[in-house]
Structure formats: structure tokens, C-alpha cells
């Protein structure tokens, strides 16, 4: 891969696409700065070479042009602290202000441009908009893995204006390397653990994983649609009624391919969607009418943990229950601990998806697994076998 290591940035201006789409609370404090921390090595390498850095990113999904809530100005102070320098900020990503501030940038300085998505041209992958961005710098670097599945102006289109000066940042290279290990080099037994809210979000991934894995564990909210499809009673648990047929097809496919598809055998139930709800544990498919499943049960924990601990490759996407609530986090925590133990015994473990990453961080186990991806949708699409526009644009 052509990474920033292959270029000397001395006296060069680099425009670097990062994914600083970080969660902010009501007072605009960053609640998880992982994506920013992950981009620092690339920025520091360019500065150390004696270059200057123009950072561009999106934040959220603004629909009506410039909106204070979605301004990247809210992250300037934190970024400055992380880099131990004063990051400059341009109120716009193209136009006079951006051109002037970029033009006056000295080696060792960093300029952050305003949210790219304040222009609808960004998401359209507009060529003229990409060209304007490209004029701000001499080199293009893409380090925005979280947005690599988007064919947007700043992630893909812009690369054509730097035919001989486009590079992957370190984060992008690391993410691709780890994803490739799963896609092409998975040592067996290979176990995928799927969870989260919806079957519909993960269909393509499940189908593509059935070609590769030995074990496919399915927990979390999506497991109830499987249970219902198999004739079980699921009370008021999450259900995608229109996906029940598909669940049965996936079970058949798994059987035909010799994949061990494992569903929870029991479930922790609650009488309402609340941390303080009354709690009980029942076998899967035996949930009383007014109750809902919010976590996997203890027998499932044992069953899943056994398979996980005997695996050599692990891909985990999606929590086993509503881990945000203390009383329903046990299944997710136990699975995280099993993944950690397998990793200690030599397995390669990749965690992807915003909520899985949040869960593993909540349990303080981030450093105990092989790799936690900064990508949600990007990692899933990569695993589904799709080409990522952000990766392709640098490689072609
Ligand atoms: N049994 C359940 N009932 C309701 N919501 C659930 C259940 N299990 C998991 N969830 C929710 O699913 C969400 C995560 O789903 P998803 O976005 O698909 O995961 P990821 O971001 O890791 O891909 C979490 O907010 C979690 O609370
Ligand atoms: O947060 C992101 O993706 P994710 O929610 O899939 O992790 C990326 O910044 C991409 O954002 P988008 O899904 O609005 O294009």
C-alpha cells in the first residue's frame, strides 16, 4: 500500500481526509475521541517531515447547509490539545477564507476546514467541488477509514487531481491490513459473532460470512427474529416480521455449507425497556407475552464462550444485549471476556461496529483484543466483499 511513509512532506502542503465524525454531547464536549486519536500518527508524521496539514472531515449528517450544531469548530480546542499546537480553523472548506488560510500555512502548522457536508456537492462526489478542495494542497492523504465506504468528493473524487501524490494514512493502512487478515488469511476455526439490533442491517454480512466461517454466533436483538421464525414465543422483543422467512433461509444455507450457526438457548427478559425493570431468565422461544428479551442468558453465555475460546480467528460485530443498561450488559461483557481469553491464547480478534467498540471500551478491554476498528459501516461493507471507494481511489 502506498502510505505516507513513502513520501517526504518537507515544505509540502498536504490535504488530509480524516473521519472526525465524533459524538458530541449537548454542550459540544466530545464523548468518544477515539477516531481523532487514531488519526494523530499520520498528522504528526507530516509535521515531523516539515510539511503542513490541512484537515478535512464531515461531522454528522447536516441537511441544510451550515448549521452551528454540526460545526467542526467545536473540536478545535481538543485537537489543539492532542497535537500540542494551536490548530487554525477556516469557517468554510472552499472559498476565499479556506484558500487564504491554506495559502498562508507554514511548515509545522495545521488548519482544520469547516464541515465538508455543509455543501451538498460533498456527498454527491461532485468533481468541481473536489477540484476546489484539491487546489488547497500539493499532496492528498486519506486516513478516513470510517468514511471509506462513501464515494464522496473528499474521500474518492478528489484523488483524480493527485495522480502522483496520493497516499494512505497510517490508520487507513492499519484498518485495511487487519480487515484483510479476516477476509483472506483467517486461521481456522474462524468464528463470527453477530449481534445488535437488526437482522436487516447485517443480511449481506451474514451471507458473505457463511462462505468463510466455521461458527456463526448470532445474539443481541436480531436473535429474536430467528427465534420467532423457528416458531418460538418472543413476547415484545425486537422483531422484524418481514425478515422471518430470510432467517429460515439463512439457517438452511448455513446447514448446507456445514457452518455451525449458533443461536442463544436462553434469554434474560424484562417487563419493560428499562434498567430497573423486573428481570427473569427463560429458555429461548418461551418469553411471556408482555416481556422482552434484553440480553442472552447464562446457558448461552457458556455455549458461546466455549466456541469463542476454541477459535483461532474472531470477528465480533454487535452487542449481545442492551449493554448500555447495567442490568443487561452481562452477556456482552461475558462474550468480550471470552474474546479476550481467546486472544491471550493466540487467536486474532477483530472488533468492528460503533456499538461493539463502545462496549469493549466500556469494559476496559480495548487493549486486550487484537484490533478494534474505527469503522462501522465501512468495516461491514469491506467484510461483505465490497470494494471501498476510499481505498480504491488511492490504489487506482
Ligand atoms: N435484545 C435487544 N433489544 C433491544 N436492543 C438491543 C438488544 N440487543 C442489542 N440491542 C441494541 O442494539 C444496538 C447496537 O446495534 P448495532 O448498531 O447493530 O451494533 P453495532 O453498532 O455494533 O454494529 C445497541 O444500542 C443495543 O442496545
Ligand atoms: O460514523 C460513521 O459511520 P458509522 O456510523 O458506520 O461508524 C462515518 O463517519 C460515516 O458517516 P456516514 O454514515 O454519515 O456517512
TrEMBL record:
Originating species: Pedobacter xixiisoli
Signal peptide location: none
Pathway annotation from the record: Carbohydrate degradation; glycolysis; pyruvate from D-glyceraldehyde 3-phosphate: step 2/5
Main location: cytoplasm
Name of the protein this chain belongs to: Phosphoglycerate kinase
Entry's localization field: Cytoplasm
Binding residue positions for ATP: 202, 293, 324, 353-356
Top EC class of this enzyme: transferase
Cytoplasm recorded as keyword: yes
Reactions that this protein is recorded to catalyse: (2R)-3-phosphoglycerate + ATP = (2R)-3-phospho-glyceroyl phosphate + ADP
EC number(s) given by UniProt: 2.7.2.3
InterPro entries: Phosphoglycerate_kinase, Phosphoglycerate_kinase_N, Phosphoglycerate_kinase_sf
Subunit structure: Monomer.
Alphabetical list of Pfam families matching this protein: PGK
Domain of life of the native organism: Bacteria
UniProt keyword annotations, A-Z: ATP-binding, Cytoplasm, Glycolysis, Kinase, Nucleotide-binding, Transferase
UniProt binding sites for substrate: 19-21, 35, 58-61, 117, 150
GO molecular function, one term: phosphoglycerate kinase activity
Cellular component, GO annotation: cytosol
UniProt similarity note: Belongs to the phosphoglycerate kinase family.
UniProt binding sites for (2R)-3-phosphoglycerate: 35, 117, 150
Gene Ontology biological-process annotations: gluconeogenesis; glycolytic process
Amino acid at each position: 500500500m502506498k502510505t505516507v511513509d513513502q513520501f517526504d512532506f518537507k515544505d509540502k502542503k498536504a490535504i488530509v481526509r480524516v473521519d472526525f465524525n465524533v459524538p458530541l454531547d449537548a454542550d459540544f464536549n466530545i464523548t468518544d475521541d477515539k477516531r481523532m486519536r487514531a488519526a494523530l500518527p499520520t498528522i504528526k508524521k507530516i509535521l515531523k517531515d516539515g510539511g503542513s496539514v490541512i484537515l478535512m472531515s464531515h461531522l454528522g449528517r447536516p441537511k441544510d447547509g451550515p448549521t452551528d450544531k454540526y460545526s467542526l469548530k467545536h473540536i478545535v480546542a481538543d485537537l489543539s490539545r492532542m497535537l500540542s499546537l494551536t490548530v487554525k480553523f477556516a469557517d468554510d472548506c472552499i472559498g476565499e477564507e479556506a484558500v487564504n488560510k491554506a495559502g498562508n500555512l507554514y511548515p509545522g502548522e495545521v488548519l482544520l476546514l469547516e464541515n465538508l457536508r455543509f455543501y451538498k456537492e460533498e456527498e454527491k462526489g461532485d468533481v468541481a467541488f473536489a477540484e476546489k478542495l484539491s487546489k488547497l494542497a500539493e499532496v492528498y492523504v486519506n486516513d478516513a477509514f470510517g468514511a471509506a465506504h462513501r464515494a464522496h468528493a473528499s474521500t474518492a473524487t478528489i484523488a483524480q487531481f493527485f495522480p502522483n501524490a496520493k497516499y494512505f494514512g497510517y490508520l487507513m493502512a492499519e484498518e485495511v491490513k487487519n480487515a484483510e487478515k479476516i477476509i483472506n488469511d483467517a486461521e481456522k476455526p474462524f468464528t463470527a459473532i453477530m449481534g445488535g439490533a437488526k437482522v436487516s442491517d447485517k443480511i449481506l454480512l451474514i451471507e458473505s460470512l457463511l462462505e468463510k466461517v466455521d461458527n456463526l454466533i448470532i445474539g443481541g436483538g436480531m436473535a429474536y427474529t430467528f427465534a420467532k421464525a423457528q416458531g418460538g414465543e418472543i413476547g415484545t422483543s425486537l422483531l422484524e416480521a418481514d425478515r422471518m422467512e430470510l432467517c429460515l433461509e439463512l439457517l438452511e444455507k448455513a446447514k448446507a455449507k456445514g457452518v455451525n450457526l449458533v443461536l442463544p438457548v436462553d434469554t434474560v427478559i424484562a417487563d419493560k425497556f428499562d434498567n430497573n425493570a423486573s428481570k427473569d431468565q427463560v429458555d429461548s422461544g418461551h418469553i411471556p407475552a408482555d416481556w422482552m428479551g434484553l440480553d442472552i442468558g447464562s446457558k448461552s453465555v457458556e455455549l458461546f464462550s466455549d466456541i469463542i475460546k476454541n477459535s483461532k480467528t474472531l470477528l465480533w460485530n454487535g452487542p449481545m444485549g442492551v449493554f448500555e443498561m447495567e442490568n443487561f450488559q452481562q452477556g456482552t461483557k461475558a462474550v468480550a471476556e471470552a474474546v479476550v481469553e481467546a486472544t491471550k491464547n493466540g487467536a486474532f480478534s477483530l472488533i468492528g461496529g460503533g456499538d461493539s467498540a463502545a462496549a469493549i471500551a466500556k469494559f476496559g478491554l480495548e487493549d486486550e483484543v487484537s484490533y478494534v476498528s474505527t469503522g462501522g459501516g465501512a468495516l461491514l461493507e469491506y467484510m461483505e466483499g465490497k470494494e471501498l471507494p476510499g481505498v480504491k481511489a488511492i490504489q487506482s
